[in-house]
Amino acid sequence: MRKYIVAGNWKMNKSLAEGIRLAEEVNAAVEKAGELKCEVVIAPPFLHLTEVSKVVGKKVSLAAQNCAAEASGAYTGEVSAGMLQSAGIPYVITGHSERRTYYGETDAILAKKTAQALASGLKVIFCIGEELSQRDSGKYFETVKSQIENGLFQLSAAEFKNIVIAYEPVWAIGTGRTATSGQAQEVHAFIRKILAGKYGQQVADDVAILYGGSCNENNAGELFAQPDIDGGLIGGASLTAEKFIRIVTAF
Ligand code: PGA
Question: Mean of the per-residue pLDDT values for the chain?
């Protein structure tokens, strides 16, 4: 059985004090919510990770938003997957569309980052998703297929156990224009089919595929009710504990 996950991507938001406060609020809300159907993950900025780790309990896991493509050495400004592992951070996000678009991260770079993360013992939330022009021209299947093939298909079936996929159509990120549950389900089912073709049905059935892009406390329930949507990667709505917990409990 695959896991359900709701992950909050804080992006470049919150001062350190604000981040600690938000993590405390999320942790308290998760504790209060009792038995949950999903794993809860939050992804604060690098600088906040170790401080935030001191204020959350076992029911909230941490993710970094990025990691280096190299293991160590003269790469000024970078943070390696091994450093994250040494700080007790279990997850890292790779391939977010903002990294692809603003920082020129290609499929080849993302394949290296993902390999570094897995080699360091991290679990990877690997993001894919088409741009608006690709959606409008009907090329979205092609886009997500090539992102998966070029970013992940170098991995073995055993390595794939530590991969979570987040389908985030770029046109839905931060725009308030979420994909309909039908649009999201269509792509999620397609992703699972591609994975089954490469790794077999069991691996495909075990992979958690999250939806991201203007997912909020009002639409999460309908999205998560789809058979191939196993949770969400939440940006804006993860910056308020009250909204985020409503998404966590939307299953
Ligand atoms: P959003 O961002 O929820 O603000 O649209 C999602 C994401 O980028 O992960």
Answer: 97
Residues 21-31: pLDDT tens digits? Answer: 999 999 999 99
Q: Which helix (H) or strand (E) holds 244?
A: helix 241-248
Give yes or no for residue 177 CB within 6 A of ligand 1: no
- In this prediction, residue 168 carries a pLDDT of 98
Measured from the CA of 127, which atom of ligand 1 is nearest?
Answer: 9
Cβ 212 under 6 angstroms from ligand 1: yes
Closest CA to 167 of 116, 111, 231: 231
Q: Environment class of residue 192 by beta-carbon count within 10 Å: exposed (0-12), middle (13-18) or buried (19+)?
A: buried
Quick check: helix, strand or coil at residue 242? Answer: helix
Instruction: Tell me the three state secondary structure of residue 126.
Output: strand
230 lines ligand 1 (CB under 6 A): no
- Catalytic positions, written as ranges: 96, 168
Token pair 């308290």 in the structure block, residue: 28
Structural fold of domain 5-248: TIM Barrel (3.20.20)
- Residue 76, C-beta contacts closer than 8 angstroms, at least 6 positions apart: none
Task: Return the residue whose CA atom lies nearest to atom 9 of ligand 1.
Answer: 235
Q: What percentage of the chain carries pLDDT values higher than 90?
A: 98
User: What gap in Å lies between CA 4 and CA 142, rounded to an integer?
Assistant: 26
In this structure, the dihedral spanned by the alpha carbons of residues 99, 129, 184 and 9, taken in order and rounded to 10 degrees, is -10
Residue ranges covered by each domain of the chain: 5-248
Please name the helix (run of DSSP H) or strand (run of DSSP E) that holds residue 86, with its range, or none: helix 81-86
pLDDT, one tens digit per residue, over 64-112 is: 999 999 999 999 999 999 999 999 999 999 999 999 999 999 999 999 9
